[in-house]
Amino acid sequence: MSKKLPYFIFLLFTLSYLSSCTTNNEKEIKSVEELSIKVKLLKSTFESVNMDDVKFAKDSYKTNMDKISMYHVSDTIEYDFAHTLSLYKGVKKTGKNLNENYRTNKKNIEMLILQLDKLKIDIENNAIQKDSIQSFIDFETKNVTKLSDDIGTFVTNCEYILETHDAYAEKVRGYTVAFK
Fold it and tell me: Long-range contacts for 124-131 (Cβ within 8 Å, ≥24 apart)?
């Protein structure tokens, strides 16, 4: 019995060590899964923007403004026309970096989805020290919040361009016809 006791103690310590290594990180995994769901919802919102319509609105703006600059004399602008033009110029201001923002947001969505998938796998495989897991989750939460803000701004800008186009493009086009 005395020869088996050291083996038994060794086996007991080994099992307790192994069981401590396979800690249950269900709460942390659930947090990462929730972040992944948020990013996928943001992706869906981002993809709901019809960029062809936005491009058409921006192109129509450029065409209309080119015609106006060719046909009208700035001294003879009436108040209603000037007011409409002022509102319509919001398309140019809002659409300034829109294509770049589109590419950046698309890349950030894809990258964040990959990061969260890898973080989840690392947590499941205990590849991250237990005391560091929350720091990684906090970092990714900040990334999701930033992405949410960026996509919110992008979608709002696209909606503004489309609404402004719908409200003023025909009026401005009518002015260009009147100038001929």
Answer: 124/25, 124/29, 126/21, 126/22, 126/23, 126/25, 130/23, 130/25
The pair phi, psi for residue 108, each rounded to 5°, is -65, -35
Residue where the block lists tokens 């249950």:
24
List all residues 6 or more positions away from 127 whose beta carbon is below 8 Å from its beta carbon. 121
pTM, full prediction: 0.80
Residue 133's nearest CA partner among 49, 2, 32, 1 is 32
DSSP summary character for residue 49: S
Beta-strand (E) ranges in the chain?
Answer: none
Show the low-confidence residues of the chain (pLDDT under 70). Answer: 1-23, 71-77, 176-180
Using a CB cutoff of 8 Å and minimum separation of 24, what contacts does 99-107 make? Answer: 101/150, 101/153, 101/154, 101/157, 102/51, 102/154, 104/150, 105/46, 105/147, 105/150, 105/151, 105/154, 106/46
CB 95 within 8 A of CB 165: no
Provide long-range contacts, Cβ within 8 A and 24+ apart, for 71-77: 71/176, 71/179, 71/180, 72/175, 72/179
**Who's near 119: CB < 8 A, 6+ residues apart?**
32, 128, 136, 137, 140
Tell me how far apart the alpha carbons of residues 143 and 107 are, in angstroms, rounded to a whole number. Answer: 13
Query: How many Cα atoms occupy the beta-carbon half-sphere of 129 within 13 Å?
Result: 3
Placement of tokens 């923007």 in the chain: 49
